[in-house]
Design a protein that fits this description.
Order of helices and strands: EHEEHEH
CATH topology: Alpha-Beta Plaits
Distance between the termini: 22 Å
CATH class: Alpha Beta
Shape: elongated
Structural class: alpha+beta
Number of helices: 3
Radius of gyration: 14 Å
Number of strands: 4
Number of domains: 1
Helix content: 25-40%
Strand content: 35-45%
């Protein structure tokens, strides 16, 4: 079975998170994108501590698709340097992982 990853990004609004999810799922780069929020992020940016309300996107895909997923997120994202992190899925139900692979490989 192919190696799978979850790709995490955050967005500044629900609308932007939904645009990211649509780009990934409609483009068959991810089988599923879960959107959660709002969340509060506290971070250091350009020498200042910032606090922002954000929406979290968690995309399920194959590791081989990571570069395409990152490029699609960057294309839609409004942040100068968006958080884009991939975490390997080390285990999962066979049926679910087969479904992820099928959805990112299928051609309409």
């Amino acid at each position: 079975m192919a190696d799978h990853v979850q790709v995490l990004t955050t967005a500044g609004s629900r609308e932007e998170a939904e645009r990211i999810a649509a780009a990934l799922v409609d483009g068959r780069l991810a089988a599923c994108v879960q959107i959660a929020g709002p969340i509060v992020s506290r971070y250091r940016w350009r020498g200042a501590v910032e606090t922002a309300e954000e929406w979290q996107c968690l995309a399920k895909t194959e590791a081989a698709r990571y570069e395409q997923v990152e490029a699609a997120i960057r294309h839609v994202h409004s942040y100068e340097e968006p958080e884009i992190l991939a975490t390997p899925i080390v285990a999962g139900s066979d049926g679910y992982l087969r479904w992820v692979s099928k959805e990112v490989r299928a051609v309409d």
